[in-house]
Structure of Cytochrome P450:
Amino acid sequence: RRNHKRLPPGPAGLPILGNALQIPIEKSWLAFSRWSKTYGDVMHFSAFGRSVVVLNSKTAVFDLLEKRSAIYSDRPRSVLAGEMIGYADFTVMCRYGSRLKESRKIISSLISPRILPEVNALQEGQTLLLLPRLMNEPEKFYEHIRWYVMSVVWKITHGYDLPNLSAPLAQVVETVNEEFSHVTAPGNAYLVDLLPFLRHVPDWVPGTGFKALAKRARANLLRSRDEPYDMVKGQVARGVAPPSFTTTIIERNPNPTPEEEDVQRMTTSHLQAAGAETSIATIESFFFMMALYPELQRRAQAELDEVVGPARLPRCSDRKDLPYTEALVKELYRWNPVGPLGVPHSVMEDDEYAGYTIPKGATIVANTWAILHDPALYPDPHEPLPERYLAPAAQKADDGETLNPDPRAFAFGYGRRICPGRIIADDMLFILVANVLAAFDVSDAVTAEGPATTRTECVGSLMSRPPAFRCKIAPRSKAMEQLVASAGLDA
Ligand code: HEM
């Protein structure tokens, strides 16, 4: 379709296909950053007649996704994943409307500063269980990190003690996560998303394998929604439910309408899915960064030794006295943001910005990676430098911008869709970083290509994570070995 509006600039594309073949599937945030030097901070692409607008600067992202959040908070339509499988009922893919509002209202009533002491105690307890696992089987650290994050989130959302990753409840969620990643992966485009009427074509027609896929994935989605919720519902009825988000929701509204219960079920099971993968990838990045940059590790350890001492392990309450460790956590969000392009938004009406039309229904992609590697905001952006946040407050760049802003303002998304789990994620990351560094030395990262170096690049299409690697995780002293073992037993 010809469009006479003045769209933002972008590379010329082919008829019908548009730019679909030009956008790389792997690490597209790097290509977008390169192209922004030619086309500017606001770029337009098209693929099969659909508009995609990529925002490459803090100003453009904040102007649109924050200040005009009222019209930039929808998600793009997705026929297979969103409508046929039903992921659009999940908060993260939910279209803008009453269901999203209801679900976000439930989440913000649950995740508030008031409940943080309880959540922090739980996170500290799970961390003490993680340390002996890392000490005894360091070669399985991927598995341990996964168990750690999932166990923290399960405990918060359903009061469930996850023994290991093969527990049936964990398996259901893992299957849903895998299916979700598969159908939403860039490059796995399904024709039904371009031609939605195909969903009504009978199953026997060749080429409709996507319908069987949708049925299977939907059945798993409903299992992941119902099994944990029904477990807690039964516990509440018997008066034995441990405290959890799901318990609170059920007790608060014991006789919900079917519509209310549907949102409650989806929201609680979704927190489980939304919280896990992002946090796991950030922790993988932490181990990688520590192995590559031993001097950062030493500096944080010196601070932990001085403030916490050798007789105990760090707690959340130490955080205010650990500025370097805090800065290191900030640098983790910046150096390799796990969501380099965030989650796409969609604009609900035609809009004008910087002299261009942003057309209604366009997918809006915030290039968070580009902001977090903008040398005008973060000098020397490719180097992990926690001390950048310790410089005297409010250092200004030539154009008056504050230098080295807190990366959490970008890493957790924007406007009305900002990540509602960010306080939980951030505390979990801090307590893990502080404990691992107090207890262990991390070193010698090795990927399939050989020893990793500071030039080894992260990989991914939707998420950015280090290439698969092994590393050494060794107790810092005999005394620490004993402390970890006894703290683990106590926990
Ligand atoms: C390091 C860990 C995490 C990172 C980097 C992260 C990042 C993000 C980002 C970038 C978004 C999209 C925001 C946008 O559309 O602009 C998001 C959405 C979301 N996150 Fe997180 N997240 C993390 C952990 C968590 C945790 C632990 C939970 C829950 C316990 C959670 C729950 C959610 C939910 C429910 C949404 C959907 C919000 C919506 O679409 O309205 N996240 N997160």
About this structure: The mean pLDDT is 91. Residues 91-92, 104, 107, 153, 270-271, 274-275, 278-279, 282, 338-339, 342-343, 345, 411-414, 417-421, 424-425 surround protoporphyrin IX containing FE (CB under 6 Å). The chain is about 50% helix and 10% strand.
